[in-house]
Amino acid sequence: NDGNQLRGPGSAIKVGNGDWVLDNNYANSFTGNIAINAGTVRVGNNNGNNYGLGDGITTVNTGGTLRSDTSNPITSRIVLNGGTLSSRNNDRTFAGTITVTAPSVVSLAQDATTARGVTITGNITGAAANLDVTGIGGGKSLIINSSTSDFSGTTRVFSGATLFASRFTRWISV
User: Is residue 1 classed exposed, middle or buried when 0-12, 13-18 and 19+ CB atoms within 10 A define those classes?
Assistant: First the structure.
C-alpha cells in the first residue's frame, strides 16, 4: 500500500476493527481480490477518488463493511457474504455487480446520528439470502435502479429505512 494505492496481482485481506482508507485519484494497477473480514474498507476520502478497489472482486464477509466516501460511483464487482455496504459524508452510489451469497446489510447510517443514502445501479444477483436495509431515519433511502437485477432472495426493510426500487421486481418484506 503506497499512498493508499494497491499495485499488481495478488490479494488483500482486511482484518481487525479499524478503518482502511483506499483513496486513489487515478486508475491503479491492482488486479487482485480484496476480502474484508472485519472492520471497514473506505473508498475515497470525501472526494471523487473511486479507484481504490482495483479490478478484482471485493468480498465483504460477516463482520466487514465496505463504505463509499467518493462522489463517483464505485464500479467494482462486490460479493456480500454476510457483510455491510454503507456511505459516508454524503449519499453514495455502487454501480458494479453486487452478488449476495449470505444474509447481508445495506446500512443507511454513517454512525448513530447521521443518516446516509445508498444507490445501487449495477446488477444485483444471488439466491436464498436476505438483503436487509437498516437505518436511523433522517429521510435517507436505498435506491435500486437496475434493469438487469436477478436477485432472488428477500429484501427486508427495517424501521428507520426506506427502499425505492424503480426496476426491482423481487420479494420485498417491510
Answer: exposed
| pLDDT tens string 47-63 | 766 667 878 899 999 99
Q: Dihedrals φ, ψ of 86, to 5°?
A: -155, 175
pTM recorded for the entire structure = 0.89
Please name the helix (run of DSSP H) or strand (run of DSSP E) that holds residue 19, with its range, or none.
strand 19-22
Residue 43 contacts residue 12 (beta carbons within 8 Å): no
Q: Quick one: cell of 52?
A: 481504490
Per the DSSP assignment, residues forming a β-bridge with 94 are 74, 120
Contact of 86 with 70, CB cutoff 8 Å: no
Least Cα distance to 128 among 66, 65, 85, 170 occurs for 170
| C-alpha cell recorded at residue 164 | 425505492
Calculate the alpha carbon distances from 48 to 11, 67, 74, 127 in Å.
Answer: 24, 14, 10, 33
Q: What is the three-state SS of 21-44?
A: EECCCCCCCCCCEEEECCEEEEEE
Q: How far apart are CA 146 and CA 148, in angstroms?
A: 6
Residue 157, pLDDT above cutoff 70: yes
Distance CA 147, CA 82 (A): 24
